[in-house]
Amino acid sequence: MLAMIALIGLSVLSPNGNHVENVVILEPVQDHIHDATLTEAEDGSYEIKTTGRDPYVFLRIRAGRPAAGLHILAFEYASETGTDKFQVYAFPPLSEATSVTGAGLTLSEGWSSHSIDLCPVLSKLSGPLEGLRLDPGTQPGKRIRIRKIVLRPPNARERELAERAKARAEELAKRDKRLRTYLEATFPAQVTRVSVQRDRVIIEGSTGRDGSGLWLADVPLWEDPTSLTTAPSLRAIDPPGRFRIVLPRFDGSRDRLLSRWAVVRRKSGGLALVSTARFADTVEPVRNVPEEHPRAKKGLGGFWKHEHILSDLDDLGISAVTVNILLNNLFSTTPADGWTPFEYANRTFYVNGSAIRGYDAMLTETAKRGIVVSAIILIGQGYQAPPNSWSRLVAHRDAHPSGIFVMPDMDSQEGVLAYAAAMDYLAKRYCKGSGPRIHHWILHNEINAGWVWTNAGEKTDVLYMDLYHRSMRLAHLIARQYDAHSKAFISLEHHWNYTPEPRFYRGKRLLELLLHFCRAEGDFDWGLAFHPYPDSLVNPRTWEDGHTDFTLDTPKITFRNVEVLDAWAHLKATFFLGKTPRTIHCTEQGLNSPDYSERSLREQAAGMAYAWKKLKSLKSIEAFQYHAWIDNRGEFGLRLGLRRFPDDPDDPLGRKPIWYVYQAMGTPQEDAVFEPYKAVIGVRDWGEVAYRGPIR
């Protein structure tokens, strides 16, 4: 969620679509407001809080003149609550007939774009447009920040998505059906093992009983194995039965590291699968890099080289950090001053020299302290980027402008190669035993809230996981060339078996699907990057969290019931190869101090003490990277940091009580520092906070 916000200001994203001169600018007004409050913030945005079941706010025209063609209501918003629906009235007259109702605003702790087409109702007005009314759902207690409200023409991306929406929906529905059948099917043949060595690939398997006339197909990562018409290489399996086929690793410039392998039969118009398609099981590394684990659980999320307080790494005893890497800021397909060329798959790409030196300096600080680093790999929107640019090639073709970040386009050869070039550059540079090092790779951010944080357009859970699984595999296979211990992590926020929005996914369901893909296409040693934020990001009293229970079907996993995550990790069905529990890092979560009052700061610190006493004994959780290091003005009034705002007038960057709690965690001083917070939580002994009952 929130570890990303500081990064967005550095990115080249423009969330409102193509720039247009002819717009109508609107602003909220206090007049006739109902079941809501409206406050203007210092940055020019507006905060709407709903107080009843019929909230609405009017918008007046501040500049511009309504005209034909200006029918897209667009704005940016942020909301840690979202809304159940969203209705817009145009007037005159003010009636249901001149309103449009759409999906509610999704949860978004960063500025996200939203647009609504008012074309169907503007033609029904009885006169010139005088204003709009926004109805943000039917529930009290919702909080929305909104800015840059305009009426504008449809942008190029909206026109493109609208024009191909029907055909694309039909295409995806067929693919979804094929994928579900593929995952559930029992095939007569098997590819049992794939080993990638430095110069060759060894594929082993069995044709089954009726093994005549079968072929081994090379299925590149971007191809759909359920709809093969051809393959870049086919090798006859003769004689039938058990087979072992050795092929060159490279097919021209194409690296078969990123191939799947399937047994097929020729048919009219294409190839029919006789087995599932299997990824490489092992990759021979070019380096002997030692395995490293965090010395202790304690870490920091969203780390950057903040010179003034870098000593916190030592003073707090930090063993693990996450680092955000927005690939769009680093890689290009065109030369420019300060950008260094490099080759991948016989193609030339360019890396931002200044930016990469910044990562070098940051990772040097972590390396000399023996800190384990997990890179969060992010991809920004690409629809505004020039044709054939890195950003345009890699961003998923169906990504909606509402997303802050997007899924890579795993269905495009050009997109996969550009994405692989970036990941190979980073892994080659940082997967090594000395100097700046990245140990693990988190793909991408909070995919169960993917509409906001990893957008691929509207997808079923199976289609979405198919894309994401292939992104994880790409990162895993490329990193394993250089570091045999590097892992790819799936990123999930705290919604477990519940989704607050129809375009989100249940976290538990996505994990089940990932395991299903692994059973079908070969297992790999992935980890889980989980974010057990409190039920409400505003309230630090996480011991009172709602929407939580101690079952494997709990709606949310927060600090209050984090034992459920540990129980899931101990289910043998989730183990790597059925033998080894998955590595879990809690890579982004924090507690808010609503203000800097003594009470708020005490409750924030108490929440941390409570969470630690539950987490410290859970063996499945290897690392806990707290978010945030420092309070951030970009987090819409939240104060999650261990330190105050850098521009706080009273104590800039001042240590909050939670800083001292964090410092004491896991040290002999822990119980003494934690002692005052028992009364806040309402316990006499810290042993009371851990749940020891059954979890089923």
Structural account:
This protein has 696 residues and is of the alpha/beta class. It folds into 3 domains: 136 residues, Jelly Rolls, CATH 2.60.120; 90 residues, Immunoglobulin-like, CATH 2.60.40; 387 residues, Alpha-Beta Barrel (TIM Barrel). It is built from 16 helices and 31 strands. The strands form 6 sheets. Strands 1, 2, 3, 4, 5, 6, 7, 8, 9 and 10 form a 10-stranded antiparallel sheet that branches. It has an 8-stranded parallel β-barrel with strand order 21-22-26-27-28-29-30-31. It has a 4-stranded mixed sheet with strand order 15-12-11-20, with no helix packed on it. Helix 11 links the parallel strand 28 and strand 29. The longest helix is centred in the N-terminal third of the chain and has 20 residues. It is globular. The two termini are 28 Å apart. The N terminus is likely disordered.
